[in-house]
Write the structure tokens for this entry.
Amino acid sequence: MDMYQNNPYMALPGVTPEELGYIQQALAQLTESQQKFFYMSYTSKRKNSQDILIFTLIGFFGVAGIHRFVLGQTVMGLLYLFTFGFCWIGTIVDLVNNKSLTLEYNQKMVYESFQMAKMAS
Amino acid sequence: MIKRLFSKYFELVFWIAAIAALAFADPAGPAHFSLCPFKALGFTWCPGCGLGHSIAWLFHGNITNSWHAHWLGIPALGIIFYRIYSLVRLRFFDQNALLIK
């Protein structure tokens, strides 16, 4: 319990060391009120890699590419949609690398939240 | 170290390998072994069928055949190249410079 109070980001569902590293890098350059804004913004923007995994799995039973849409890669999502996820191969690939896909997205969100926090106060 | 390399560059390596394999494939040759579950079930048509042929024809410079194999071949190649580009940028250039003003 104490551990989480020291660093609230460790309580985020499915958080990884790499993600914490990016967050730490951003926090170091922010004042305390900016850090509060950053926390609010980032926790609402970030995605959990487990959710992405579930969206990817839907590709086997029906519509492929939902995970790519959710991660903001619209064109790639359309390509997956029209080709059944490259005949399942793309879906299998994304099952394997769902963590790095999510990290890529979360890294972008760290950057966006960082910029917003800088501007906000 | 291999594990780290694998998890970090997996998608990048996969797309480049796939594109390279298609570039060296012979699009006029007989159908190769397929993982496709629809084909295994006996269906003869699937929305993704012909995409590989289409991209392979493109690398051979035959746009008409490419269009006939699958109309998505040209946009697909563009999208995959764009994805490779953004992955390379992310993995090799953006990483630590991201938050530095």
Remarks:
- The longest helix of chain B spans residues 2-24.
